[in-house]
Design brief:
This protein is an alpha+beta fold. The protein contains three helices and five strands; from the N terminus they run αβαββαββ. The chain has a five-stranded mixed sheet.
């Protein structure tokens, strides 16, 4: 049996590259965020709309990724970890939309050494805005 070592690193990269996900998250805290933040929430609620129970908003979490989908278990786990780290009891989705980013401009190198400008490739990313909250009726300050 012949083993080709030059293919092994590429195969490992493809396998682990498809398993890991990288999401971009940015948090915009409310003015009274430090006083409202929970130290260790037991569970995190991800809701489609504002909850019926009274809540205090602690900030807005903006996540950007091409594959941002709450139905994806990996993305859901990422959101739950982010919200728990921020000290929130949960979050609801305020907006989800596609955002156009500056595209990548291609170029072709000619045989005489010059580069001929090519076309601009469009680049879209999904932006999801979540409102992070704590329940107001539990240990309200």
């Amino acid at each position: 049996m012949k083993v080709h070592f030059f293919r092994t690193p590429a195969l490992i990269f493809i396998i682990f590259g498809s398993i890991t996900a990288c999401y971009s998250a940015e948090f915009f805290p409310a003015a009274d965020y430090p006083g409202l933040r929970r130290r260790s929430p037991e569970s995190v609620d991800l809701l489609a709309g504002r909850p019926h129970r009274p809540v205090s908003v602690i900030g807005r979490l903006v996540v950007k990724d091409a594959a941002a989908d709450v139905r994806d278990p990996n993305f859901r786990r990422f959101l739950e970890n982010e919200i728990a780290a921020l000290g929130g009891d949960g979050a609801w989705v305020q907006a989800a939309r596609l955002v156009n980013l500056p595209g990548l401009r291609t170029g072709e190198r000619q045989s005489d050494g010059y580069v001929q400008p090519g076309e601009e490739l469009p680049n879209q990313v999904r932006e999801m805005q979540l409102i992070v909250f704590v329940y107001a009726d539990e240990d309200a300050p």
